[in-house]
Design goal:
- Strands 1-2-4-5-6-3 form a six-stranded antiparallel sheet, with helices on one face.
- The two termini are 30 Å apart.
- The chain has one helix and six strands, in the order ββαββββ.
- The radius of gyration is 15 Å and the shape is globular.
- 32% of the residues are buried.
- It is of the alpha+beta class.
- β4 (110-120) and β5 form a beta hairpin.
Length: 160
């Protein structure tokens, strides 16, 4: 079954973490699995912190980008419309707090699972868990802020 990745619906996105238009980026790809947004990310040796361990900043980046995509997809889902439909929404990080519980191996897939816990106006609150081989290595509390709504913006999307 083909997954409908949120980030594929942001074709002009050049973000280092999730931009489909950034050939040097991390290429985070997220999709719905029930009420959770899921991302399975495969690292590369160049993202080591210490030998065989993922750099903490890279882990925070993939969590961040996964959650921004989740906030966008959740907004469309709440409005019962496809991700390709207008108006276009984009989100940016308001707050991210990552708790590193144990070192994250760099040589196995990292699974991220995010849940939306609250939506209030332009703010979406989420929790996210990072797991490797089923073991939780980090958790995060994330607040996303809607920074672009094409229905209220004159002109082109400034985030293209």
């Amino acid at each position: 079954m083909r997954k409908d990745y949120f980030q594929q619906h942001m074709p002009e996105n050049v973000c280092f973490g999730c931009g489909v238009s950034n050939e040097d980026g991390l290429h985070v790809q997220s999709y719905w699995e029930g009420e959770e947004a899921v991302c399975t990310w495969h690292s590369q040796e160049k993202y080591h912190g210490w030998a065989n361990l993922l750099n903490g900043g890279i882990l925070a980046t993939i969590i961040d980008c996964h959650c921004m995509g989740t906030a966008m997809a959740d907004a469309y889902r709440r409005e019962d419309r496809p991700l390709d439909s207008a108006p276009t929404y984009r989100y940016a990080t308001g707050t991210i707090t990552v708790k590193y519980l144990k070192p994250t191996p760099n040589d196995h897939p990292i699974e991220l699972r995010a849940q939306v816990t609250e939506v209030k106006g332009k703010k979406t609150v989420m929790t996210c868990t990072a797991r490797v081989n089923g073991e939780v290595t980090a958790t995060a509390d994330v607040i996303a802020i809607r920074v672009f709504d094409s229905s209220t913006h004159d002109g082109a999307n400034p985030f293209k």
